[in-house]
Amino acid sequence: NGGLAHGLPNGATVRKKLMGYVGFANLPNQVHRKSVRKGFQFTAMVVGESGLGKSTLINTLFNTTLYPEKEPLPPQAERPSTVSIESISADIEENGVRLRLTVVDTPGFGDFVNNDNSWKPIVENIEARFDAYLEQENRVNRQKLVDNRVHACLYFIQPTGHALKQIDIEFMRRLHTKVNLIPVIAKADTLTDDEIVAFKERVLSDIAHHNIRIFQAPIYDNEDEETIAENEEIASKIPFAVVGSNREVRTSDGRSVRGRAYPWGVIEVDNEDHCDFVKLRQMLVRTYMEELREHTNDVLYENYRSEKLLGMGVTQDTSVFKEINPAAKSAEERALHEAKLAKMEAEMKMVFQQKVQEKEAKLKQSEEELYARHREMKDALEKQRLELEDKKRRLESGRPLTPEKSVSTKKKGFLRA
Ligand code: GDP
Questions:
Q1: What residue stretches are annotated with the Septin-type G domain (predicted)?
Q2: Is 232 domain-assigned?
Q3: In a designed cystine with 276, which of 240, 294, 297, 323 is the match (CB 3.0 to 4.6 A)?
Q4: What ligand 1 atom has the least distance to the C-alpha of 49?
């Protein structure tokens, strides 16, 4: 009841329970409508030796033929000797929701005799995408940010059934702080169920042993039981043992399914008893796409950005102490934030100065023009004055006016001739 009028101290908030209808319960719908209108951008990267089924899986995941079927290279063909980075985008739509999907492929990874630096061009590409985003953020006009950062990286593990290889460990070690890693066991139909269970265990223990952080599907306990159970189920399947196929095959009971046909039967891609494909799709698309985007922005990109700012000379206390000292940490965050603000301010100043200079140049030009006109008029007047004076002198001395004035020039010329 008029808390403000009763002189509440500065900063105190009056909490009251509103009874009437205001309408903000519709806020989630507004957000929803807006994001639907804007559409979504998602970039996934696939990494793994060639032939592990990367293109097939992407086609299967998004139900498109993003990648045409590849012709196997003839044995004598010259193979490239470096990892290249290729990206393809497609706009896909489902129930009126638009998704601009970009898939970044890394052909050549792990395909050479010496694969020591296979991870390098990939890290560089991911960082270049961060840089491009950072550059947009630092612009004065930050209206439309295009987000080409990699939101998830599917890492294809060869289904050896043994352990991770050196190249797998090296890649994940180099990349886990830059991208959401989602390891998948490729071509899981080549392993038996027991082999898959044992291999998954081995892969997870290798990952833990090397302190590699893969993307953890978060589970929120404020959600309903069914959702929690579903999310736990997804988390329990990592690393996903997947099978890809874009072909429809016929099962023994006459159904037509996406799968791979073998003499002993059909492996169904979309059957959860046969492989983890459905769980991978749920994680990547249905449940955690926004989470992957958020984690990329809030954690991975943010770390990269702060390191970059540090590298650019924003001074900071780098003692171990600050890691465990929340006050120092927030001071550091504030310093980074201030550095960013300062940069923006400097840029705004620059633009302002430029505008002022332009204006000054314009003013100077019009001043010069005015001056020139003034001079012209002055000259004309002076000329007139001289002419009048001349006239006056002639009249006074009784001589006729200038010949030009009395006889036409033409005639005079003619007479002379
Ligand atoms: P990429 O080089 O990693 O992109 O591999 P591709 O998607 O081109 O697949 C290479 C070959 O493996 C093709 O002949 C595919 O039909 C086959 N393939 C793809 N996925 C699977 C799978 O899950 N299981 C099996 N057995 N073969 C697969």
A1: 38-311
A2: yes
A3: 240
A4: 3
